[in-house]
Amino acid sequence: MAIKVYGSMISTATLRVLLCLAEKDLDYELIFIDLATGEHKSPHMLSNNPFGQIPAFEDGDIKLIESRAIMQYIVRKYADKGTELMSSDPKKMAEQSVWMEVESQKFEPATTKLIWELCMKRFLFGKKGDDAVVAELLPALGRLLDVYEARLSESKYLGGDGFSLADLYHVPVIKFLTEAETKMKKLFHARPHVSAWVTDVLSRPACLKVFCKHAYCKGG
Amino acid sequence: MAIKVYGSMISTATLRVLLCLAEKDLDYELIFIDLATGEHKSPHMLSNNPFGQIPAFEDGDIKLIESRAIMQYIVRKYADKGTELMSSDPKKMAEQSVWMEVESQKFEPATTKLIWELCMKRFLFGKKGDDAVVAELLPALGRLLDVYEARLSESKYLGGDGFSLADLYHVPVIKFLTEAETKMKKLFHARPHVSAWVTDVLSRPACLKVFCKHAYCKGG
């Protein structure tokens, strides 16, 4: 049975899962859920995801939610395919885990409102974000990126020398934030090691494949 | 070399790590970091944790931050000791991962401000929390616990039949929220399966050991 992902290309969590499937060279079916009409809160989707969120994921009889958990499942289940993404060496895995958690606990909270203002308002309602809210949020993200700059001056990728889930977790948010707004782009590219990392992760074949495959700007 | 944890017993993140060490029957040294004086932002601690937070963790030459990453490291490194906490079966591990992520993405954000109002203000400054803020936060936590109730009516623990990191991640916050305030206690215990789960996880020997060993209420 094919892998099914219920989601939308304007959902960073959905994109996270699709990028992981692409890194693993796995085929999948994307079933479009329309956030604009609240389809993610429909009885059908609530039976897939009791939190009324996307994505929901199916692989045969396995049904999962939470993008990061889905990605870890994919990496473990299809260990012999595509990019490794999680090391089997406990010490290396520990480093990767730290930066997976940093994304989850620091980067995601620092960028959620920015994604809403700068991307989701435009995608869903064709509206411009609130400049004042954005300006208020930028300094904290800047301070966070200073820690990333220090980390990436020591190792090419967040989790060490190799590209891993620690990097991949960040990609959809970085993609959205660095393409739409000049100020945001400057925030990332003002830091040389962060800048090189952003350019690197966004130019990976899996990333190009996912973003070319689906016309996310059109809400599809 | 002994395992070292730099942290404080009033930090839920520190407690998470200590509970994991106790579940694994591992000895450790707790080096007290005084949040009240801002010691976690000192140059020494910033060299251990660039985010200026606790805990920081050392096991020989391994230095880690982020409580959940530390716990995963402990579970992998000391797989043959104490409670299993992460399954080696990919399907079971996938279920556990989902609820580890639910804690991280849903439970933690829903309870962070409550912990601040109900516990940290008291621990750090001897002050009472803001009742209005607490009242505003309770309905969202109630709705979240409804999903937990449904889950725990299907399986004894969040990640399946066995106690795992998915449960353990929640324990310090539950401990703080259910012992201090009657309203909070009611919120958990009004749901029979959540109530049984709370009673179960708080009465585990590791939990009793950690909370008896260190007098966290006295800021030690």
TrEMBL record, chains A, B:
Q: Is Nucleus one of the keywords UniProt gives this record?
A: no
InterPro entries (UniProt xref)? Glutathione-S-Trfase_C-like (IPR010987), Glutathione-S-Trfase_C_sf (IPR036282), Glutathione_S-Trfase (IPR040079), Glutathione_S-Trfase_N (IPR004045), GST_C (IPR004046), GST_Phi_C (IPR034347), Thioredoxin-like_sf (IPR036249)
The GST N-terminal domain is annotated at 1-82
State the family it belongs to.
Answer: Belongs to the GST superfamily. Phi family.
What UniProt keywords apply to this chain's record, in alphabetical order?
Transferase
Mention one GO molecular function. Answer: glutathione binding
Q: Give the SUPFAM superfamilies listed for this entry.
A: GST C-terminal domain-like, Thioredoxin-like
User: EC number(s)?
Assistant: 2.5.1.18
Name one process (GO BP) from the record.
toxin catabolic process
Q: Start and end of every GST C-terminal domain?
A: 89-219
What is this protein called in UniProt?
glutathione transferase
One GO cellular component term of this record is:
cytoplasm
Catalytic reactions on record? RX + glutathione = an S-substituted glutathione + a halide anion + H(+)
Q: What Gene3D superfamilies has UniProt attached to this entry? A: 1.20.1050.10, Glutaredoxin
Record carries keyword Nucleotide-binding:
no
